[in-house]
């Protein structure tokens, strides 16, 4: 049997059998390499396309006037802070300036962790809807986002949100 496997030319394997073995090893190695690269690429694509994690915040929502309990309502909420009023009208250029002032005031309140003052944005009946959206975006701009839209008013303020145990803070 040994003589069948070893050729008579000194025990060397013929060139064509050695080439086939190397080629098979190369194909297996290349396949494993391609599979690993594709797996890494898929992991990277899925990891980078994850939606951003939402920061914590509170949006307070109050029931309509007819459904409010007398002890819990917007009236109690409006009396807990001193609010700076910003009035939005149908004039777009003045609304942009007003919203910029409201943004600066609210961001300084949040940065200083001011628990006394707040921002009260009043939307007129003829104010375009996109200014309401911009006002809500301003309220959510800096963490923590605590605001209460009610009718044509938005009340925004700073509240201390303690970190949850076991969670890392940035």
Structural account:
By secondary structure, this protein is an alpha/beta fold. The chain folds into two domains: 2-48; 57-157, Translation Initiation Factor IF3, CATH 3.30.110. The chain is built from five helices and five strands. Helix 4 (92-111) packs parallel to helix 5 (129-140). The mean pLDDT is 78.
Named CATH topology of the largest domain: Translation Initiation Factor IF3
Tally of separate domains: 2
Q: Order of strands in the sheet with the most strands?
A: 1-4-5-3-2
Query: Helix count?
Result: 5
Helix content: 40-55%
Give start-end ranges of low-pLDDT stretches: none
Molecular shape: elongated
Q: How many beta-strand segments?
A: 5
Q: What is the CATH architecture assignment of the largest domain?
A: 2-Layer Sandwich
Biggest β-sheet strands, sense, barrel? 5 strands, mixed
- Structural class from helices and strands? alpha/beta
Gyration radius, rounded: 34 Å
Element-by-element helix/strand order:
HHEHEHEHEE
Q: What is the mean pLDDT?
A: 78
Spatial gap, N to C terminus:
72 Å
CATH C-level of the largest domain: Alpha Beta
Q: Percent of residues in beta strands?
A: 15-25%
């Amino acid at each position: 049997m040994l003589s069948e496997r070893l050729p008579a030319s000194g025990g060397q394997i013929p060139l064509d059998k050695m080439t086939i073995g190397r080629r098979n090893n190369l194909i297996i190695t290349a396949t494993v390499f391609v599979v690993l690269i594709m797996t890494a690429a898929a992991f990277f694509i899925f990891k980078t396309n994850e939606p951003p994690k939402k920061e914590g915040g509170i949006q307070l929502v109050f029931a309509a006037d007819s459904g409010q309990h007398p002890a819990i309502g917007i009236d109690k909420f409006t009396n807990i802070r001193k609010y700076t009023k910003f009035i939005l009208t149908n004039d777009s250029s003045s609304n942009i300036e007003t919203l910029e002032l409201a943004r600066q005031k609210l961001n300084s309140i949040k940065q200083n962790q001011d628990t006394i003052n707040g921002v009260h944005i009043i939307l007129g009946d003829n104010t375009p809807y996109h200014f309401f959206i911009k006002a809500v975006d301003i309220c959510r701009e800096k963490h923590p986002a605590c605001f209460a839209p009610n009718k044509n008013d938005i009340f925004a303020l700073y509240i201390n949100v303690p970190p949850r145990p076991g969670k890392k803070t940035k």
